[in-house]
Each structure stands twice: as C-alpha cells, then as structure tokens.
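To: structure desk
From: M.T.
Subject: fold request, one chain
Message: Could you run this one when you get a chance? Sequence is below, nothing fancy, just the single chain.
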Amino acid sequence: MPYLRGEYEKPDGCIFCHKLSCADKDEYILHRGESCYVTLNRYPYSSGHLMVIPHAHVSSLEDLDTPTLTELMLCVNVSLGALREAYAPHGFNLGMNLGEAAGAGIAAHVHMHIVPRWTADTNFMPMLARTRVIPELLDDAYARLKPVFATLVEAK
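Reply: Done. Structure tokens follow.
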C-alpha cells in the first residue's frame, strides 16, 4: 500500500475537498451524489472501511442543510448494502468524531465512518504486536466495491 511506504503525499488544504477534483479510482471514490460522496478510507480499521463525506467543507452536522443531511444518510444505507453484498460482515460500526477533542483526524470537514465488523475480528496481532492486519489492498477493495455501488445506486 503506497501510504504505508510513504509514497502518498497529502495535498495542501483539506484532503476531502481535494478528492472532489480527482478521478474516482485515484482517490477510491465509490459513489458521487449531488452533495455527498462515498470513499474508501486510506487508513482502514478493517477491509471495506468507508467514509461518507459531504461536499460542503463544514465541521459539524448542524452546519449542513436538510437535503445534504438526507443524502448523507441515504449514502450510508447504500454503503451498508454494498458492504453486506461484497464482504458479508456480521455487523458495523458507524460513527463521527466531531472536533479534535473527540478524536477527529480531520476536524474541519465532517464525515461518517462505516466500519464492517466480523465476529472475533480482533486477533492477537493488535494485542501482542501492536499491529493491525488489513487483509486486502485498497485497490482490491475498490475493484470489489465499485460495481456493487453502481448496481445498488442504479436500482434506487
């Protein structure tokens, strides 16, 4: 994975705003809506870790208008369906960290994490070696999920 080898250069400014001007495959964007998009997380907690990100550069949900809030949750639903089809997870963690004190890595641009989970998916590696094991490259996850998103979004 290029970012693990230090080959990924973060752009100047907001990474989430920057993604909007890039090709889908270059930034692992799986779906673009009118006011939100879905992308793979470059630093995943598990295979298939997605983020739903509004186009608007705001730091909190209360700064988004109703159509954007609605589309954000509709993108979450499509993402859940795509992940169920592509990975068959046993559950999900959904969440937002609003503000740096809450753990937001990019506090200036609100975003929702969708993390697929499997029973017993935490193994000995994080406990003994302080190492996370992600069994799938981002390019492979993108290739697996992109056609599923296209099918699900078209069906809506």
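Reply (cont.): The first strand starts at residue 29 and ends at 32. Let me know if you need anything else for the meeting.
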